[in-house]
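Slide 14.
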Amino acid sequence: GEMTVEKPKLVAAGAVLAVAVAVGAWALVTGGDEPEAGPPAADASPAPAATDPVGVLVAAATKVDQQSYRLTVGTGGAAGGDSTVLLWDPKARRGLETTSLKVPNGEVKIERLTTGPDVYVRVSAPDRRIPVWDGRTWWHVGAPKAPGAQPGLDNTRLAGTLTAPAQVRQTGVREYAGTLDLRESGAVLGSGVGKVLGERAGAVPFTAAVDEHGRLVRYRIELASEQSQTAQLDLTYSDFGLPVAADPPAADLVGEDPPANIPGA
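Slide 15: predicted structure.
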């Protein structure tokens, strides 16, 4: 019947569209206003790398570990929700991560200071019902955990999850979308995120954007959608090369043997 005639036409149209998009993307990437000076022969080789979305994103993710940066992490949903800001120097492995959690009577603030081999955590609460959340004591939670031992999310390594894209397409100038295979990313994402992903971990939707230097600047992982609420990790990388001061706290502010209600203890 007519259906069998229609199908090849649709397939052909799809193929033409795919080629048109690829050519359009290629034109965007290669058609800069200021052509690079240099021998014409060299022009031919960089082009494929520049247009291969997987290659672009893998390179962008590895560049995150080359200099210090500010990472802002939101969890989607309404503005003014919980958020984390990380100032991180990947080479020195030092930095400060501050998480703000909305609670009925205000905000709980969790600060995590990593300085060389030591990690300290300070928690500030809007009331004094939990004395160890005094906003003053830096609890020494020991050395950074071995990979895999940390049950929580490791924001310093989140960009690394982008090196396992299952499918990627270019959606705009330096903008990409696709799916990730996060089945091997438990050590980075923590057990909580792993539970949310469940069976979907092999094909998790994401979007990403890189800057003109090929560095990752936006990265959003769509974790799940339940009851019309989409849970996501919304990452913004900025301020590359900023100075990161992360010195150990003054001795009189340090608490050893942190109690169990200190995150990371």
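Speaker note: The longest strand covers residues 216-226.
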